[in-house]
Amino acid sequence: MNNPNLPPPPSDQEEITSSTKFEWDFRVSAVVSSSTAGAHISDTLGVIEVNSAGTLFATGGIARKIRVYCLNSLPPLTDHATACQFNICTPAKLSSLKWKPGSAGKIMGSADYDGVVTEYDLETQMPVFERDEHSGRRVWSMDYSHRDPLVGASGSDDGTMQIWDPRDHDGGKCVGTVQFGSPVCCVEFSPFGGALVAVGCADRKAYIYDVRNMVDPVAIFDGHQRTVSYIRFVDDRTVVTSGTDGCIKMWDTENRCLIRTYRGHTNQRRFVGLSIWRNQGLIGCGSESNQVFVYDKRWGEPIWVHGFEPDGGTTTEHGFVSSVCWSQVGDDECTLVSGGSDGVLKIFSGKRKLLTSIDS
Length: 360
Known about the structure:
It is built from two helices and 29 strands.
C-alpha cells in the first residue's frame, strides 16, 4: 500500500530527466538604475509583473509609481527615466500589481498601503475602478481569477481575504470573505483555470480554498516557522510557499503533503519576492543577502546565485533583493526580472545546456 504522506512516484519522463544533467547559463542582459543620487532611499521595488506575452513588465513600490517597461528592447545599461515607457503616479505606496486577464494588456490592477485596490487604464493612465473595503488596512496582495466569471481577490492586514466582482464599478461587490485572525500576506488564483485560490498568512500557515465553497479550506499547510509571505502555483496540483523563516516549501495540494524544502537564501523579516517559471520548474527569489537565487524544483539547493551589487559602486549596507518575476514565455531560454531595495532593476537571461553523463 502506498504511503499517503509521501509524494507520488516519478513519471517515466521524470526518471529519464533524473538521469540527465541540465545546466542553466545565466547572464545579466540589462541593468536599469536610478539617475538620481540617493534615490534608493525611497525607491524600493516591492513588486514586478511581466505580462503574459513576455513583452512588457511593470514595477511598483515605495516611489508611488507604476512604471511600465518594454522587456525586449532595454539597452544593457540605462536608467529609469530613459528606459521607462511611461509611469502612473499613485496616491499610496504599492504592494501588488496584476495584469487583468481579458483586457488585452490595457488594464493593470494594484493594491496599496492605504488598503485600496485600484485598476488603471494603461492607455489613458487613469484609474477606472477603486475598491476600499479593508478598513484602511494595508492590502499586501491582489490577484485575478483565470476562469469565467472573472473575480478578484485581496488579502490585507485586517486579517481577511476578500473575493470581489471587478465588473461592479460601485466598489466591487464582495462575493466571499474569509477571516483568518492574522494578516493575509499573499493570495493567488490557480492560473490553470480551476476554482482554487491559495492564501498565505502571518499565522505561519498556507491555505487552499475552492471559490465555489469558501466555508472550509481544501487544504491547510502548516510547516513554516514564521510568516508565509508568498504562495505560488507550480502546476494544477502543486504550490510553493515562501516564509520569513528563510525557506521555500513545495506542497502537493491533492495529497496535502510536503514534497520538498529549499534553502540557501536569507529571509528573516522582509518581502524578497517569489516567482515560478512554470515551463521548466525554476523557482526565483530574492534574499536579504542582496542576492538573486534560482532553484530547480527537483532539488533543495540553489542552482544559481547572483550578487546584486549596489548602483554606481556605492555601499548599501542593508540592501536586499525585494522582488522577482519570470517571463512565462520560452522553453529552453528564460528571462528573470529582479528589483532591489535601492531601486535598481536587473534582467537576467537564461539558457539551458544539456549535458549527458558522458559530457559531465
